[in-house]
Amino acid sequence: MSVKEKETGPDISNLNDSALSKKERAELIKKAKQDAKEAEIRKKTEAREAAEKLKAEKFAEEKKAGKHKTLAEITEGKDDYEQDFKVPDNTVVYCENLVKLYKIGDIEVMALQGLDLSVQDGEMIAIIGNSGSGKSTLMNIIGGLDRPTAGRIYVNGINLLKLDDNQMLQYMRETVGFVWQNTARNMIPYLNALDNVKLVMQMAGRLDSNRANELLEIVGLEHRKKSKMHELSGGEQQRVAIAIGLANKPKILLADEPTGAVDTKTTAQIMSVFHRLNSEMGVTVIIVTHDRQLSHMVPRVVTISDGRIGTEFIRREEIDVNSDEMMNATAGHDSGSHIEYGFIDGRRRLFIPEYYLSKAGLREKSKVGIEVKDGKLELFKPEDND
After folding, report:
1. 374 plus 260 within the same structural domain
2. CB neighbours of 136 closer than 8 A, spacing ≥ 6?
3. What whole-number distance in Å separates Cα of residue 369 and Cα of residue 357?
4. What is the pLDDT of residue 377?
5. Three-state SS at 160
6. Which residues are paired to 155 by β-bridges?
7. Which helix (H) or strand (E) holds 100?
8. Are residues 183 and 303 located together in one domain of the fold?
């Protein structure tokens, strides 16, 4: 498009040319409308960029003058409930006795039932559970999209229960990044990959074109930065989504079923990107999924069932993302890679998987014998438990 067209709109003066066929005239009209639409978007984008730049400069000056506090500073005042509480050192996500109750008509559904969870700063973790287990509810609460009914939750030192709506929006822009399974939630279809990354920065008043290009390079898509959503494969769309999620330098990257709609090879590529971001940039990565194959590809796995943490799996050795080990793990050929642990929550409840119950001849809602031998806790079926 010429400079004149940018300023005055597309040139359609040759539409009256009698030499044009009906098809050519229709194509000219279509192009003219598309050019006008892009010009309008460009004009609005440039105006928004200018406004956001002024806003960011003003905020920086006010913050330097001490007029603005961080979210952690805003929420650090303690009430009676928090008086003797301190988040454990190096913990970026801390959930204690978390409860979430939904009411649908006269029916109450408890999505989280006193859940306890701690995630260390710089950790990579997968939260795995079946549909209805409460994993998505937990992710939405950590991400600021939902609020718990009761309990305690701190993220990066911020007490989420004390944030009002505007502060929660600031939290979502500055502290967490999202990668959704549904690509329509990740990208705006009429913008290319680079503009999608830059848009997130603009909305937060942090436009940095160099960083936007660097993020696409990190996820291996620098050569596709001018491509729109429909021009990218499913795996490429997810990698753009990761770059978008990192646009504002979040402390935590939340990924909801990031490999749910791609094949095994693409899954390995996406998981390799997560590993590199975690190890090289220090971003805490929390992946929420029902796909148990992913458990082979992360250092720590937490299972969730009926709104409570079940068991945990810790990887024996660090995985090499640049070898065939990642592909083998993706394909499920990595059995024995993790050590399984039980989890005793804040109410001293211990979740026992069905596999162990059946092996010991135990069943739900029945008595269980307990003994301590040589420093080990043993559970067994009592003789009178029939």
Report:
1. no
2. 256, 288
3. 13
4. 86
5. helix
6. 93, 158
7. strand 91-104
8. yes
Residue 373 falls inside a structural domain: yes
Whether 329 has a pLDDT exceeding 60, the answer reads no
CA dist., res. 162 & res. 336, Å (int): 43
Residue 69 lies in a domain: no
Residue type at 193? A
Does residue 103 lie within any of the structural domains? Answer: no
Query: pLDDT tens across 278-307, in order?
Result: 998 999 999 999 887 777 788 999 999 889
Helix (H, G, I), strand (E, B) or coil at 349: coil
Q: What is the CATH number of the domain that holds 314?
A: 3.40.50.300
Least confident of 11-25, 66-80, 102-116: 66-80
* Confidence bin at 331 (pLDDT 50/70/90): very low
**Residue 196 near residue 240, CB atoms below 8 Å:** yes
Q: What is the chain's mean pLDDT, rounded?
A: 82
> pLDDT tens-digit profile of 18-73?
667 777 778 888 888 888 888 887 788 778 767 767 776 776 676 667 665 667 66
Q: pTM of the predicted model, to two decimals?
A: 0.77
Domain range spanning residue 375? 353-386
Write down the pLDDT at residue 156: 93
288 shares a domain with 373: no
Residue 59 lies inside a defined structural domain of this protein? yes
Which residues, listed in sequence order, are joined to residue 370 by a DSSP beta bridge? 379
Bridge-based pairing state of the strands 369-373 and 124-128:
unpaired
* DSSP assignment string, 179-221: E-SSHHHH--TTSBHHHHHHHHHHHTT---HHHHHHHHHHTT-
Taking the C-alpha atoms of residue 332 and residue 316, their distance in angstroms, rounded to an integer, is: 16
Query: 212 with 335, same domain?
Result: yes
Claim to verify: residue 292 and residue 378 sit in the same structural domain: no
Asked whether residue 32 falls in the same domain as residue 177, the answer is no
Judge if 304 and 369 occupy the same domain. no
Q: How many domains does the chain have?
A: 3
Q: Give pLDDT tens digits for 216-231.
A: 999 999 999 999 988 9
- Cβ neighbours of residue 215 closer than 8 Å, sequence gap 6 or more: 197, 243, 246, 247
**Reduced 3-state DSSP string for 49-82:** HHHHHHHHHHHHHHHHCCCCCCHHHHCCCCCCCC
CB neighbour class for 70 (10 Å; exposed up to 12, middle 13-18, buried from 19): middle
C-alpha dihedral, 304 to 308 to 311 to 316, nearest 10°? 60
